[in-house]
Write a structure and sequence with these properties.
Helices cover about 30% and strands about 30% of the residues. With about 230 residues, the protein is α/β, with parallel strands linked by helices. It has a six-stranded mixed sheet. It is globular and about 50 Å long. GO terms for molecular function: ATP binding; ATP hydrolysis activity; transmembrane transporter activity. Pfam families: ABC_tran. Keywords: ATP-binding, Nucleotide-binding, Transport.
């Protein structure tokens, strides 16, 4: 399969006062289209930083990051924002839903950056909610949903613009085991039946078992790859 994500000699440093901290060191990584990858490692190992580089939320200090055949390191803020809207669907630990909006309106949010009409946005949101099993909950606000349902809405929002890549940062970290398994089964279904490429940060070995590959980070370096 073609590589959808390619990182070459990527290093990431942050400056804190007079101190420079190297979070990632000389990362070389290729992720195939249609893969489901779990990024694992201890706290502070660089997992979220690596995910942010892949998702275009941050840029490397040195090295190159290419996603869907486009080199994204060095893009200006405006161009990078347009690129993210077209290619990346984000799923976060705490859902990041707008509390005053219904589930359907939350799912529509990424489509506001497109030229779709209001009726098209509504239809696309309804389809995305149906895919995650919430066709009947579109009018409910986040406060009227369980944690698992809220995360399903967040996944529908990530899917609605048909992105190239889903990036998930601890998507089950705030859920009990049974609900977490439901969300992981959903992600696995999106990968296997809908062909979505997924990169997921998790600290949970049981969650990582749902992925087809596991990448392990330690002290900013990749230390092993495991096929699940």
């Amino acid at each position: 399969m073609n590589a959808i994500v390619s990182l070459q000699n990527v290093t990431k440093r942050y400056t804190r006062g007079k101190q420079t901290v190297e979070v990632l060191h000389d990362i070389n990584l290729s992720i195939a289209q249609g893969d489901f990858v779990a990024l694992m490692g201890p706290s502070g190992s660089g997992k979220t930083t690596l995910l942010n580089l892949i998702g275009g939320l941050d840029q490397p200090s040195t090295g190159s990051v290419s996603v869907a055949g486009e080199r994204i390191d060095g893009l200006s803020g405006a161009r990078l924002a347009k690129w993210r809207a077209r290619h990346i669907g984000f799923v976060f630990q705490f859902y990041n839903l707008m509390p005053m909006l219904s589930a359907q309106r939350n799912v529509e949010l990424p489509l506001l950056l497109t030229s779709l009409s209001a009726s098209q946005r509504r239809r696309n949101a309804e389809v995305a909610l149906a895919v995650v099993g919430l066709a009947e909950r579109g009018k409910h606000k986040p406060s009227e949903l369980s944690g698992g349902q809220a995360q399903r809405v967040a996944i529908a929002r990530a899917l609605v613009a048909d992105p190239t890549l889903l990036v998930c940062d601890e998507p089950t970290g705030d859920l009990d085991r049974a609900t977490a398994d439901e969300i992981l089964n959903l992600l696995q279904m999106l990968n296997r039946e809908h062909g979505k490429t997924i990169v997921m940060v998790t600290h949970d070995p049981k969650a990582a078992e749902y992925a087809s590959h596991q990448l392990h980070l330690d002290k900013g370096q990749l230390v092993g790859t495991v096929a699940a």
